[in-house]
Amino acid sequence: MAINTPKQTSHLKREILVRLIRAFLSDDFAENARLIPYDMRPKGHEVPYRCCIYKERAILRDRAVAGLGHSIEETDDSELLSNLAEKALERTQPDEKPLTVLTTACKGCVPSRIYVTDLCQGCVARPCVNTCKFGAISVINGKSVIDPAKCKNCGMCAQVCPYQAIQKIIVPCENACPVGAITKGEDGHAKIDFDKCISCGKCVSACPFGAVHEKSQIIDVLKNIKAGKKVIAMVAPAIMGQLPCTPQQLKEAIQELGFADVYEVAQGADVTTKTEAAEFVERLEKGAEFMTTSCCAGYNELVDKHIPEIKPYRSDTKTPMYYTAEIVKKEHPDAVTVFFSPCVAKRREALQNPNVDYVLNYEEIGAWFVAVGVQVSECGESKFKTEASAEARNYAVTGGVAKAVQTLLPEEIPAHPVIIDGLNKQSIRDLKKYAKNGMCELGNLIEVMACPGGCLGGNATVNAYKPALKQLTNYVNASESLKSTEK
Amino acid sequence: MEKKISVKVCLGTTCFVMGSANLQELIEMVPKKYGEKVEVTGVPCLGLCSIDWEFSKAPYVKVDEDVIKEATVEKVLKAIDDKLAAMN
Ligand code: SF4
Ligand code: SF4
Ligand code: FES
Prior knowledge:
Chain A is of the alpha/beta class.
């Protein structure tokens, strides 16, 4: 799948966020929140997507529920958005589960199966019949018919049909999930099993109906700012490719929203690089065959939940988020810290880290700028107190972490990087194999990123991949190399 | 020499967040497709998003004086084609 394809569902999700933020900032948050579905679909409005205006409003209401940070699964249908807005204000901690599925929006896609289309010519060769190992296909009235009781969904017949008449029908969320955590429940709607889910966000991007939402913490952050707390933003490296402005303008723009200061998470990435390079040398000297990186939260959750056997090979170095939050809390013990994230996975990581109070994703930041009318390219420039290295700022690009570690390795212990550019069923099988064999024939430093393209391909990014990469690379090229700052 | 069609893709913050990030490809694509006849640029806020609740109709693209709401690559290309057809 192409990375960050344009989607109408993103437009809807962002519009809801903008309206929620404006409602919060208005003099009647609860009432204005309640009105969102009616403001978006007033009487007589066209019905662009669903069967009727009532259904559209019901879905918009549920999108707002997720935007307020609640679970659809645990919220009563009868509850008014105004009550839910007030409940959001009472919350002191974000919810454990980062995602929620809107049953109203979920189409309950037809179950995944192999399907013979009208293109079937009932040919004489009948390779489908001959290929099926389970005897599931017979030709009836001049057309192939699959016996669902025998079909094992292997898809072999689809591959051999000379007319490409046999298709595999997929359920987009199920198909995207690398660990089988999202499946259609008994009621036909998608459901996430959080014991399996690794928070990779792939289902969020994949669902064509926008039925999977992140539970937003935007209200919690707004509330802290309104209360006059010292709220500090920690922006993950990928953000520098997200908005049409310079990094220094972005810092200024974020401060205009009410944040007291902005730290680059790349600052913590520099600590990660140094620690990980030292660890790599130590491990190899002790005879290890390979080591994997440990900065991607989605990968870390995968290891914990599905590949425990690879734990001994995963670096013990902490993530850039960890080191950055540690620095910030040391310098400002009284601060409320907010991590600006490209993906869902970092929400899970933040929950386990007492130094990170909240997480906002890039869509939410973008919506905030829209809500208050900040034009980022018209903002002044504000410098970061600590400048991170070029290598650290490049962590957001696939291959960037391995490259950074390599910069600091001694010549006698060279790394041969293996880049896992996105988690999927195949790459998970590969990782399991490396753990089982205790070695990887392709190299000794395995960089794992859950998202293809790296963090720039995260589910909550705003910019398209190519221009984001270009913009970030310009910033990286204008930064000092770790090598020169080390010596 | 006939007049060029001007295409302005709004890259102001509102339009960018609401979707013009995905219209940046027009800036490379249009000259390749239409050559000299069409001039395409990315521009700062066109001032359309701040009127009332009009952010929800972003991203905006202007093809000469016509405003395209909720612009997509397809909508913009069609507008250019229509303009070109009308000129001939
Ligand atoms: S992709 Fe999954 S979540 Fe989306 S509509 Fe289909 S079944 Fe529902
Ligand atoms: S977030 Fe990832 S692991 Fe969790 S259900 Fe969605 S696709 Fe599966
Ligand atoms: S940002 Fe496009 S019209 Fe304002």
